[in-house]
Every structure is written in C-alpha cells, then in structure tokens.
Amino acid sequence: MVKVAIAGGSGNVAREVIDRILAKGSHEIVILSRQIPRSTDNGNTKWVQVDYESKASLTRAFSDIDTVLSFLAIPDPSCMIRLQKNMIDAAIEAGVRRFSPSEWGSTVKSDMGIYGYKDEIRRYLAEVSEDGKRLEYCLFQPGFFTNYFGHPYSTAKHFSMSATYVDFENRRAILVDDGDYKISLTTVQDLAGVVTEALDYSGRWPTVGGFSGSEITLAELIRLGEEIRGPFQVEKVSSKDLRAGELKASWYPVVSHPSIPSDRSDEMSKMITTFFLRGVSEGGWNSSHEWNDRLPNYPFISAKEYLTTLWKGKP
Where is the NmrA-like domain (predicted)? Predict the structure, then answer.
C-alpha cells in the first residue's frame, strides 16, 4: 500500500478515479485542496490544505507521498502551467516516485490551442526528469470519453456530462471532411480502472500512456448512432476551415464543464468544438496503446456495447 496524492480532487473525473482506487482498497488517498470542505463523501480519504502557488507548501504535502495525480482544471493556461510546474518541482524535492500531470484526454500530437499548457508541461517534465531518473511520470491519454455520447444520460456517479459534435439525443452530427479520421473512445469508468491498475503496475510507467476501449472513425461513430437511434442530420465541415479557426456549421454543442464561466459558455463552446473537430482531423484524439499492451486482461467497455446498452429504450 502506498500513499497517492490527488490534486484537483474535488473535480468530476478525479472523484471517479478516487472511488475506483478506494474500491480496490490497495492504497491510501490524500486529496489536496486550497480549502478543506466542511463535509466529504468518503471518510477513507485524508484532505490536506495546500497553496498551489507555494512550492514549499506542496513539498510539505508530498513528504510521504509515492504517487501524485493531477486533475487540476483552470481556464487560465498560464496559471495551469505555473501551478503544475510547482507541483513537479515539489514532487522531485520531496522524493515522489511517480507523477501524472493533468492530461486525461488528447494525445501528444493534438496541437489544440486550448491545450497549449499541456505541451509546455510535457516539455518541462522531459527537461527535469532526466530520462525518468528523477521522476517517473506518465501522460495518461484515453482519447475522448465515450460517456459524452450518452448525454443527457449518465452511468457515472460524478462525471459531468456535456453535449458533443455527435449528438445522439437530437440525432445530429458534424462530420469533418469524409469522416475517415480515427478517434479513441474510452469510458470514464475505464479511465478510472486503468489508473487504478497502473498504481499497482510493477514495471516502469510509460512516458506516453495511451489507451482506449474502442478505435473508430468519425464516420463509423455516426453510423453507429444511426444504427442505434435512427437517421441523423449530418453537416459536413472542412478541416481546412477548422485549421483557420472557422466552424461553418448551423449549430454546435453547448459544452458544460465546471471550469467554463457561465457568461462565456457560448463563446467557449464554439471555440472548443472547433478545436476538438480540428483535433479529430489531425489525429489528436487517436490514442496510442501503451496501457492496452501492459494490461492485456483489462476488460474495456467498447463504444458499441456502452452506447447500445445506454440508449436502449430511450425516446
């Protein structure tokens, strides 16, 4: 049993991971927070108040920690970079063995402006880790969460749902070019499962830690939606326009996320959809298979199984 520190532990994805780790009962969880809540969901976790702006505060919090998992989600990219660098420096100083930055989605080749902070943190980790001698780290990259295509229906306890560019509820979709771009789909439950298994993995963590429950093209996903739900209204946009920052579609999903201010929801939803679809066309959501290879017996839920079961009998 080791101690695992969770940064951003009150977030919706982090809470799914925490519950899964606790259910296995192999490790002790320490949740880092700027403020300790008056009440918590689970008495099996320890909450520690930290100042993410202070390397000294983080170093004290990491003094007996084996692994740090960061789920910080802050709209300001410069703030994200600064706070995560503080965590990395503190983890090295405190002797932390393993570290995972705030990834949990797109690949290293995503080239999405909204995720620019990830590129900087990846460079910084490579620079300071000295080929993993100072800090073993992994970029957990599951692709796109399958759960989103079940909106508004959820099968997860904490995960925050949001509509997407393939809208199963309203039977509509936005197709990029001819839709022959592969995307990796993984349920948030399987993300939590893989992270939990990774904590017990005896080998060295891969630096890039891609995995997926299914690999499917955008066109195939839309056909799956039509197989399950009936005909979709499909609008086609071009990757060339997306690279120019233009989304020429009559609609786009309203993206709901705790990190998005309500007064900027419409503006950011269009921007995020543009970047996400551009990422699809450039391979940014097609994960590698490092954890699939290292966990060959892990029972991933396929997109077809998940979505068929979820939408069965729904209006």
Answer: 3-206
